[in-house]
Specification:
This protein is an all-alpha fold. The protein has one domain. Helix content is 74%, strand content 0%.
Length: 154
């Protein structure tokens, strides 16, 4: 079960990199005891939840701006892979399993989510001939809802 949850949370990072991090930080405050004895203990700090949430909101706005680079360029893709790995490690840590394996699974999910999200967004915009903003807002809702759903299953 940990593999599926970590991979899915990584996929959410591929859609919106900071949304799953904020969800993990809030969930970690709720008692993910497995993190308190690891290098991931910073995720349980209230300041982490507040800062990651603020950054996630900024990312949601920034995604809609015309000058925002593609998620598949080096910087954004790298961030999605790293944050997917961090979230995957947190899932595994919360379940008292290997942080390294969790990081690998989450990072793989970050790659998969980035490419799948990019492809889905472009295809939906072209197929339905609707403005990109509407698909971007749908993607936001999917990312937020999925992140909350996943962390509440741990």
């Amino acid at each position: 079960m940990a593999i599926v949850l970590a991979f899915l949370l990584g996929m959410v990072a591929g859609l919106r990199s900071l949304t799953p991090l904020a969800a993990v930080a809030w969930a970690a405050q709720g008692g993910w005891a497995g993190l308190s004895q690891s290098w991931l203990s910073f995720l349980s700090a209230p300041v982490t939840a507040y800062i990651s949430t603020a950054l996630a909101v900024i990312e949601l706005v920034n995604d809609k701006l015309p000058f925002t680079p593609s998620r598949l360029t080096v910087g954004p893709l790298g961030a999605r892979i790293l944050i997917g790995g961090l979230c995957g490690a947190a899932v595994f840590g919360a379940l008292h399993q290997s942080l390294v394996l969790g990081a690998i699974v989450g990072a793989a999910g970050g790659v998969a989510g980035s490419f799948a999200g990019y492809s889905a967004r472009r295809t939906l915009v072209a197929s339905f001939r609707i403005p990109d903003i509407w698909i971007a807002l749908l993607e936001d809702a999917i990312a937020i809802g999925s992140a909350i759903l996943i962390v509440t299953r741990i």
